[in-house]
Amino acid sequence: MSETRTALVTGATSGIGRAAALKLGRDGFKVLVNGRDAERGAAVVKEIENAGGSAEFVAADLSDVRAIGELVAAAGDVDVLVNNAGFSWFGPTPDLDPDRFDELFAANVRSAYYLTAAIAPKMAERGRGSIINLGSMVGQIGLSGSAAYSATKAALAALTRSWAAEYSPRGVRVNTIAPGPAYTGGAAADRIAALGKTTLLSRAADAEEIGDAIAFLASPAAGYITGAVIPVDGGRTAV
To answer: I need a labelling partner for 50 at 20 to 30 A (CA). Which of 2, 32, 138, 148 fits?
Structure first.
């Protein structure tokens, strides 16, 4: 009997996280669906189970470092970690107040940092694992109104390279997916559609297309990829 592999997906109750969780469930992973909303989490778990997969909802507010420790303890051995949790903020730079700035970095950067700090060494001890960080095209290009959000995503790209240097020699692959505009329910659809028109493919992505890229990086097919920031942006950053 093949060994059951476990994937922990943060922010998995909606959008890209949900899409990734569903895809990983279809690929045979036991999926730990993380989020704050138990009702939405239960719905994702049910979707995975109805498709023949295995899943469990694990609640945690990742803006709380203590909750991160509790999540790690509840998760046990994790083979794939998808650091997807976080949120975006767009607006004029002076309009972002200090508390919201701190919340943005706590959700987008600090949560990924401390989850990886707790889980990557255990992966390295076992000699295998995959960590996938959710970046963004705005971590690589300038977009008016996104200074702070862009900085969080650029930070994840830098962390990816450093973590690859730290853990990949012991079998842990660390990569970032950098999506372009995607319909996730987290931003106004008209804004996403307008950004989609700026890509080479002249459209925004569906969340499922980003989920497929995440699942690829979690699979053996990506066994020689580490330390990479992979654009899934319809060519937006290519030219």
So the answer is: 2
Write out pLDDT tens, residues 216-235.
999 999 999 999 999 999 99
The answer to whether 201 touches 148, Cβ cutoff 8 Å, is no
Tokens of 59: 């609640």
As a CATH number, domain 6-232 is: 3.40.50.720
As given in the structure block, the two tokens for residue 24 are 């990983």
Model confidence pLDDT, tens digit, residues 50-61: 999 999 999 999
CA torsion sign for 50, 53, 54, 60 is negative
Q: How far apart are CA 237 and CA 229, in angstroms?
A: 12
Give the residue numbers annotated as catalytic, written as ranges: 149
Asked if 196 contacts 181 with a C-beta cutoff of 8 angstroms, the reply is yes
DSSP SS3 for 14 = coil
Token digits of residue 128 = 């295998």
Model pTM above 0.85: yes
For residues 105 and 233, what is the distance between their CA atoms, to the nearest angstrom?
Answer: 23
In which residue are the tokens 């049910």 written?
46
Calpha distance 71→227 (Å, rounded): 25
